[in-house]
Structures are given as structure tokens and as C-alpha cells.
């Protein structure tokens, strides 16, 4: 499509999401496809639709499912923290404060999980193998460590043993939210607790 219709790389995305709405019925003038007429555009529309339907890895539908699953696991993480009374700040709140790269959760007070200090938690609706962790996650998590200190990553669909065994230092890798008996919490001062829930009422 980039060649035949002279589209930019960025313009191809909308065509993948809506081929019959975004790919023109007739090729624009001054494009390589113009000499072939409407038949070529009809063929492109059909081919793109079939390619997207058969793409189970990176199609717009798969992206939507991946985003939905990610949000559901983030909700599970937040509910687990609330259940244990662990105060936290969400990624959205951190972004509103001006932070550029943030984990899903920043704890207001650190906790200890199996003897490891945790200041932040990131939720991943995926399985973790060496490729995923080293090539896609390690640099991202180190950025969080540099900003907020040691943290924890939950790969909800599992962590391969050799990666989990290497989760030493500043990033703890787990495949589920820890059991309560594995967590040591600090208690907020009563005044701080009220402020973390929205602030004290004006006198």
C-alpha cells in the first residue's frame, strides 16, 4: 500500500483497521496504482481484509484483545492491593503529576515480598521467557528502578523457571500476586492514611 498508493507508513494503520473505509475506491492520480484503475483498489481492500482476519499476532483485533486483557489484570492487581489495605498511586495519577515513564502501580509506602523491598509493581498480561524479559522488559524495568527504587513485576501467565531464578537485585519477578503471609507492610500514620484517601476535610 505504501508503494501503490503512495501512503506514509503511519497512514497504513487506519487502512488495516478499516480497509473498505480508508482504502480509496479508485487510485489517486500520480500514484503507481493509478494506471490499474479501481480494480486494483478493490483487490487491495480484499487482500488487506483477509490478511487482517488471519493475523493472530498483531492485527487490530488482537491489539484490542491484548489491551483489554491488560486492563483486566491491572484491575486485579489494584483490587488485591486494596483488599490488603496497601495504599498506592496508579499510572494515570503519576502521568498527571508529570512523570513520563511509570509502572502500573507506585506504592505510597514500600512493602517487603519474601524479604525483597518493593516500591512499585508492574502488571504484564503475558508469559515471561528470556526473550520477553531481556529484550522487551529489562530496560523498561531498570528505568523504573532508577526513578523509584526496587520493584516487582507480575507476569500473570507465568514466568519460565530460569528467568524467575535470576530475579535477584532490584526487580522481583512473580507469576501471581503474593500471598498475604509473604508480604510485610508498613502502617501509615492515621493522618497520612486520611490524606491518601483524599485528604482531610476542611475545618
UniProtKB/TrEMBL annotation:
It is found in: Cytoplasm; Nucleus. Pfam families: TPD. Keywords: Cytoplasm, Nucleus. Signal peptide: none annotated. It comes from Micromonas pusilla. It comes from the Eukaryota. The lineage of its organism: Eukaryota, Viridiplantae, Chlorophyta, Mamiellophyceae, Mamiellales. This is CDAN1-interacting nuclease 1. One of its GO terms (cellular component) is nucleus.
